[in-house]
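Session log. Operator J.P. requested a structure for one protein chain; no other inputs attached. Running the standard single-chain path with token output.
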Amino acid sequence: MKFNYLLLLLICTQTSFAQFGLFGKNPLINQENFDKQRVHWGYFLGFNSYDFKFDYLTVGKDIEVKSNTGFSVGLVGNLRINDYFDVRFEPGFYATQRNLTYPNIEDSVDRLREVKASNLHFPLLLKYSALRTGNIKPYIVGGFSRTLNLGSNANAQDDNYTNRFRVKKWTTNYEVGFGIDLYLEYFKFSPSIRGVFGMGDELIRDNNPNSPWTGNIQSMKTRAVFINFTFH
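Structure written below.
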């Protein structure tokens, strides 16, 4: 899977910084007072991989979901609470695509649905950090988010019978992840990985209750993995 290579890139990035002495026994301390700021800002670039979790009304063949690697960009606002806790707001733009294959549909055109999304993502997160050691500080993060899908087709009257797949505009999620702060000479660099879990059904059913695309779906929820590279 392509996204496994991105995870490997995240690990290798951290390893490469070790070669510059950041993880050494007596490193030169960079940005010593950075975390004493009450508020600081940054931005992130990254990759994402979105999936769907389906629950069905009756047992049958599962819908096959093929995830594609998308890109992400956004801003970071950090509010310091104490040496261990921070509150973070990370609004961002996430572009992605999921291809759904319906094994019970014979026609090759009707069998495939390309679900493209241009998401505005608004997470409010609580960050818990370990004590800084030299120029590194690992952390875990978790919280809740709201996502606005700009390509949801929620207001469209057409449905899958005219090749239009519809989902709800807004979704609510919870998120958990981990990362590491690396204090460089001129800025702080923070690679991280985070899982995103949709909490509610996102699917808008077709007008026909017996639709082969939506009729047997009890719920459809987002699952996603984010790899972000944050610069402060």
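Operator note: The CA atoms of residues 137 and 181 lie 5 Å apart.
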